[in-house]
Specification:
The protein has about 450 residues and is of the alpha+beta class. It is built from 12 helices and 15 strands. β10 and β11 form a beta hairpin.
Length: about 450
């Protein structure tokens, strides 16, 4: 359980950090070309990259990324994961290797620290939001919330946002300023910014130890406010933005909203917002509509190609001499969510009537997979192809425990079968070495001409 948690946490942290760094590099150029709204839209790359990281592999082996790109990434991920395992012990006195055990104590310590930090942060956020939400009073006649004097206007709710105005809203702001503020809050409600803030805050809770996550939270909220300012002032030229400027200055002394609620008074630097209101431009429409989607799709595509969907093709092995091949077997294996290894070979099938079971004669292939850093065996694969009374080819792969020194592979962990008419068949299992192995198998019939060529 801890091994799986450790591997998932390492990959999640690396994926999120890489995506945040990419957004940090692209933000200035995107804002210069497309304005604040394009800059805010660039943050869509974060959830899409996390989704691409968890997508299953494509139905066929595709060279989605060059080996020079995804192989170093796979090595970095493996090194980070293997750091929490004990080095392989030396052979015992009888010459047989001893299986390495995970550092359960270190893993438990890290898991406990992460859980304690996340729980403490959740408690702080909940208390802050509860203290602020207790001041809300629902006004059914106006269909909005009421806040005490001195608070900032805000939008409350994730799915159906409602406006919350302080009691001194009409006295503090002029009619023109009120209209601009309401326009600003309507943009927050239309874009469901409170829901996006909850999502980003949840990522920070999961990554409370990651400084890049906290940097992303602050920059995301700043970009969000600038994007709403840009939307509210879209129809006004720079010479007629003075009421918006005055409203920002008046709201500077107001009490901020909850961390999970979007309010007019935010933690965004006031000087930057005032500077943009006075001199900012909306950006070029073609850049805002075309550049950002391409960048977001490109970033998520790179993640998909290098995290779990990339396939290392080990080539094709023809049939062994003296064994006329009947089938082409294609096998893909993945260890702990890493790169897919694709292998294909030609093999002779053994005839097994439907009424017979058990061992049978035929051509077998076996292979043992090792950890790239500890040089210890992870698991073994034994595969063969059968032909039944219906002249149908059936490929079988047995996932076995790794072999002991000088011995045959260990007991079978799980098996997967694929008939020639079924396409790819999948298997996922955990071995005694603590690794999660995914196997995909497909069997294709060969004619005698193909097997002899």
């Amino acid at each position: 359980m801890l091994n799986e948690w450790m591997h998932l946490a390492v990959n999640f942290s690396l994926t999120l950090s890489a995506c945040v760094l990419a957004v940090a590099v692209l933000r200035p150029a995107v804002r210069w070309l497309g304005g604040p709204r394009a800059q805010y839209a660039l943050w869509l790359a974060v959830p899409l990259c996390l989704l691409a990281w968890r997508l299953p592999a494509p139905p066929v082996a595709l060279p989605l990324a060059p080996v020079a790109v995804h192989k170093p990434i796979a090595e970095w991920r493996s090194q980070a994961t293997e750091f929490l395992r004990e080095p392989a012990p030396p052979p015992a006195a009888n010459g047989m290797p001893q299986r390495a055990a995970p550092r359960s104590g270190l893993q438990q310590l890290l898991f406990g620290a992460w859980l304690l930090g996340g729980a403490g942060l959740c408690l702080l956020l909940w208390r802050q939001h509860r203290r602020w939400s207790r001041q809300l009073v629902w006004q059914p006649d106006a269909a909005r919330w009421r806040l005490p004097v001195g608070h900032s206007p805000a939008v409350v709710g994730w799915w159906k946002p409602k406006l919350a105005l302080p009691d001194d809203f009409a006295e503090r702001f002029t009619a023109e300023e009120q209209a601009l503020i309401l326009t600003h809050e309507a943009v927050h409600a239309r874009r469901r910014d409170s829901l996006w803030n909850a999502f980003v805050t949840a990522l920070c809770v999961l990554q409370w130890f990651n400084p890049l996550a906290w940097w992303a939270l602050r920059r995301f909220q700043r970009d969000q406010e600038l994007a709403c300012d840009a939307a509210a002032l879209a129809a006004l030229p720079a010479t007629q933005r003075r009421p918006y400027w005055d409203a920002l200055l008046k709201a500077h002394a107001l009490s901020p909203s909850s961390a999970l609620v979007r309010g007019w008074r935010s933690a965004h630097p006031l000087i930057e917002r005032l500077r943009w209101v006075q001199h900012g431009v909306q950006g070029r429409s073609w850049a805002a509509l075309g550049l950002v989607p391409m960048l977001v799709l490109a970033m998520s595509g790179v993640v998909y190609a290098t995290h779990g969907a990339a396939v290392l093709d080990f080539g094709h092995r023809p049939a062994t001499e003296g064994y006329p091949a009947d089938a082409r077997v294609e096998v893909r294996t993945q260890v702990n969510g890493g790169l897919w290894d694709h292998d294909s070979y030609e093999i002779a099938a053994a005839y097994v009537p439907d009424h017979l079971t058990g061992n049978h004669r035929g051509q077998f292939t076996t292979s043992t997979h090792y950890s790239p850093y500890e040089k210890r065996a992870w698991f073994a694969l034994a595969s063969h192809v059968l032909r039944n009374d219906k002249d149908e080819l059936i490929g079988v792969i047995n996932l076995r425990e790794p072999p002991e020194w000088g011995q045959q592979p260990g007991p079978i962990v799980a098996s997967v079968e694929a008939r020639q008419s079924e396409g790819w068949q999948r298997l996922s299992a955990r071995t005694a070495a603590g690794v999660v192995v995914r196997i995909e198998l497909r069997v294709l019939p060969l004619s005698r001409t193909q097997s002899g060529s």
